[in-house]
């Protein structure tokens, strides 16, 4: 007797429709906004016109800086549109070498290696540098790319362990490290990994305390400073600078070129020469995925040079952050306090966050509402992001719109 099976495409269609209609009916369906024009403090949104932008990661306003754009154009003319190869075959160009030198110098470490995104960098670092017998210990609020990088690493390397410590809780981290030391299956390297700036809370990883705990237990410290580089510290070196640490006190950085550092795309791992050489030799994204486009490498390099030569832009960002945080606080909204450029206003319910974001947009202010699954259920928020490119008038319009929202919703 022949058995008949429901066709895979029917099963797929029915479950996909189910999820999408559930999202639609609960007000959680995301609608992509179309931007006609460059990223900046104000942007052109299709169907909306000009709105003030408070949800990009363009922290220093370099995404459309004329010199950053020009560097990309020059790169395009000199090196063409594509690398057409992974790096180790024939895809490494002079702009890669130059950019990696610039990144390493800026962070104060020996070497760096670039990828098409920080996500890819996270998928390279843990599966490549960690080995069976090691344990990777992650802050519970770390970015999704760290979580997935760790998951991938433990699938690829049987006998590599992972654990999570409560958010910024040093006592809990010590406990986990003690347990690891006592475990005969974990005689290798303990790795502690944290965001420098937590992307959804906007608070800081306590890098000074983390360094001390890591030293106590012989652990390596990895910091994803995607939201801290270009933002934190007097000269924008990042969260380590804010805590008075120098670059080589962090064993490895991961970071992005898609936020403060030019805003294009791309990511990197930075740290010791030996570690970076391992990434070159053994990293699967290194060996099997195309290089960062040279145009992007040229733009990012110029962006970092501009920041290096003018730390004043970091001060402007800090002033803007202080002004905005004060204004939002005075309205009576509860903002998670920190010195970073991410100001999350917790509203609880995902549908409410999306509705409030739409109301702000009606007032010409673009702030995204984040809900589940980006943040845990019940902690949906409006995430306001401040840029050095904002002038006081932008910030005043933000505060006025939020005040109207507060008056309406209480
Ligand atoms: C902390 C953190 N790490 C990594 C990433 C990913 O960076 P990329 O866009 O370069 O993959 C993000 C982006 O949102 C982030 O917030």
Characterise the protein shown here.
The protein has 410 residues and is of the alpha/beta class. It folds into two domains: 129 residues, Aspartate Aminotransferase, domain 1 (Alpha-Beta Complex), CATH 3.90.1150; 244 residues, Type I PLP-dependent aspartate aminotransferase-like (Major domain) (Aspartate Aminotransferase, domain 2, 3-Layer(aba) Sandwich). The protein is 45% helix and 15% strand. The strands form three sheets. It has a seven-stranded mixed beta sheet with strand order 3-9-8-7-6-4-5, with helices on both faces. The chain has a three-stranded mixed beta sheet with strand order 1-2-11. Strands 10-13-12 form a three-stranded antiparallel beta sheet, covered by helices on one side. Helix 4 packs parallel to helix 12. It is globular, with a radius of gyration of 22 Å. The mean pLDDT is 95. Bound molecules: pyridoxal-5'-phosphate. The site of pyridoxal-5'-phosphate (PLP) has 13 residues, from helix 5.
